[in-house]
Each structure stands twice: as structure tokens, then as C-alpha cells.
Amino acid sequence: MGIAERKGRDRAEREARIVAAAREIAEREGWDAVTVRRLADEIEYSQPVLYSHFENRDAIVAAVAAEGFKDITTALQKAASRSSEPRNAVKNVALAYLDFALRRPALYEAMFVLPTNLRFAKAETRPELRAAFEALAAVVALFCADVAVAAATETFWATLHGLAELERSGRIRPSARAERIALVVAALAGCRNGPRPSDE
Amino acid sequence: MGIAERKGRDRAEREARIVAAAREIAEREGWDAVTVRRLADEIEYSQPVLYSHFENRDAIVAAVAAEGFKDITTALQKAASRSSEPRNAVKNVALAYLDFALRRPALYEAMFVLPTNLRFAKAETRPELRAAFEALAAVVALFCADVAVAAATETFWATLHGLAELERSGRIRPSARAERIALVVAALAGCRNGPRPSDE
DNA sequence: GAACAATATCTAGCGTCGCTAGATTATGAG
DNA sequence: CTCATAATCTAGCGACGCTAGATATTGTTC
Question: What is the model's pTM?
Fold first, then answer.
């Protein structure tokens, strides 16, 4: 009975096309241009079909955001892995984070700004989000005592997020980005409540 | 010719009522509930009147945001002034910032999240925004060399903004707020590239 | 292969939004 | 008192998210 499976595959493929179209339009023209009618046009189906895949428009945005979390996780992991020395790892991760946020503003917006309604409660934290957090925590753990890693990672994350948002909205000087990152690296390096007894 | 002045006063008062209504509705029911029709109802005029005061809905949101910047500036200044010791000043300012963002989420949203279109270019930075920045810079200056104050303030601000946003959207643990702020204070205190040769 | 049940999809439209053109009313000048 | 001007309103356009009910497509059964 491969027939049901083929249907399932077709459905999944169509769903992926919806998400891909949403992402492309958002990155090219902003999220306001991502309307259900437009997406329906793009995939060459009528509007109600979209509602058989997603509960509402916000759920489509959330699906794009989930992709974004996967992307940023790999970007952060790659940045961390190509750095031998801890301070350099922090710097490269920070740079990678800002690069991601500023080069894909619409995607980043979907991840952090837009679907304020679809909140993640603490228990049911989405795995994609958790993975991104862990990628940051891995770098922070190079400097902080295990007991302080969670709060330090949250703070590090908040700083990166804030830098991304304020730079994205033109409220801090793009020219001073390197200087700011240097400050962040220095701050984290100073967090020696119990460092890993390794190099440096 | 006091007649034109009376008209001007009436107009200004009506404009203030629009902004006040927008702020109240937003704080009570969220920005989605702030529609032009609803505001027109609230001030007991028809819709087009609103467009003689503001270019569009976003401009109304921006007016509320401007009020918010004034409010946060005084809140930060007050927090700084009631602290004698520098480290305490930083801590109190950080607490005041987060308190503001989390107790008036809609207002904070208007200031930093919503009107992404109405950007502030670097030159024409709105004075209200500049004043808020200066209030932060005053505290940062207690620790950093003059030459580094700007970047340090931007980074400090970014951290506070990130903490506010991530906590507001339920992505970091509210219970660890004090711990995170302690880390921020420690980091800033470590920024001794050329401290003020004063107390501590 | 024809008839039917189930599923998939579409057409058409509801209510609401931001915004505006053109009609209408109030206002102050001569 | 007349009349131009300014202030305000009524009515409606186009687009939005979303959905009920009609229609077409599909797979099953005899």
C-alpha cells in the first residue's frame, strides 16, 4: 500500500514548498509581503490548502523560524570548531551570530521578533531553539564554572541578540562592531569563577 | 489674534488624546487592538481626522514610542542618582531598565520592535533616544575610559535590551534574572581600561 | 469497467484592516 | 448677510486572514 505513503510524501513536499516560498519572499521583500494569497499563488494552489497544512499565517512564520534555528546552530558550531584558542572561539561565534542576524534579517526577525504569540514555555522548549542555545553554551563553558554556565550563556546570548537588534535597526554604529565584540570577549574571559583548567 | 492660538491648542490637545488612547489600548490589549477606527471612536472624531495629525498608523506608534523614551530616561536617571557607589549604580540602572521593559511591554515594543520602518538614521537621531542613551552612558562612564565609553555603552545597552527581549518572550529563565545582572555588573566593573580615579 | 463514498480542492464571500476622495458642514472675513 | 475657506464626515476602495459550502478528484467495491 505505497499509495498512502506517496500521498504523504506529496503533502510533505508541498508543505516544504510553502515554507520555502515564505522564506524567499520574506528575505526579498519583507514579511509584510508574505500573504496567504501570495503563497497560494506561489505554490499554485488555492488559499484553503494552506490551512490544511498550517493553522494560520503565524504558524507558517514559525516554520520558517524553526529552519532558521537549525541554520544558526550549524553556523555557530562551525565557527566554534574552526577556532583552537578559547578567546578566539568566543570571538568567532559572536561574529558568526551577528553575521547571521544581519545577513538574513527577515529570517532572524521570524526567529525572535515576529511570532510573539506562539511563545515557548520553559518546559516545551522547541528542540531547535535548545540546540542553538547549546551551541552557545559550549563556548561559554570554556570560561565559566559549570554551575554558572546557564546564566552566563543566557547573558551572552542576550548581548548578541541585543547587538544584532540594535544594529539591525540602525541604533548603534555599525563601524564600532569590532570594538563592541572585543568588549564582549574580554568580559567573558574575565568570568573566571572557575575556568576549565586547560589552555591559555 | 488669539483665535489661531486657541485652534492650535485644541489641535495639540486632540493629538495628545490620540497618543494617550493608543498607549492605553496597547498596554491593555496589545498593539493589534490599536486600530485607527478604534482610536477615532475613542476621541469621538471620524477616521480622517487622525490622518490630519499623523501620516499613518505607524506614526502614531512612533509618537507613543517617543513618550516611552522620555519615561525610560527619567527612570534610568532616577535609578542612577539614588545610588552612591558605582557598582550599585550599574546594578540599579540595569534593574530599572528591565523593570521598565517588563512592566510596560507594549510601550517597550513600540520603542524597539514595532516601527522598524521609521528608522532613525545616525545623523537625525531623535533627541529622546539620544537622551536615554546618555543616561546609560553616564553610568558606564563611571568605569570606562572616555575613549571607550561609546562602544561600552552600546554594548551595555545591547545586553539590557537582549535580556529584556529574551525574558519578555519567555526564552530565558525569569528566576535567574538577578544572577544575570550580577554577571553584567561584574563584566562592566572589569572594564578597567582607564577608570575614573574615584571611589571603590 | 461503472457506481459510489471519501477525500482533496476550489469558488466565493465575510468581517476587518489602513487609507482616501468627494460631499458636507461649520467658521471667520468682508 | 454673504461667501470663501477650512474643518469634518460619509462612504467606499483594495487588501488582508480566514472559512463555509460547492465541486472535482481519487480509490474502493461489485
Answer: 0.91
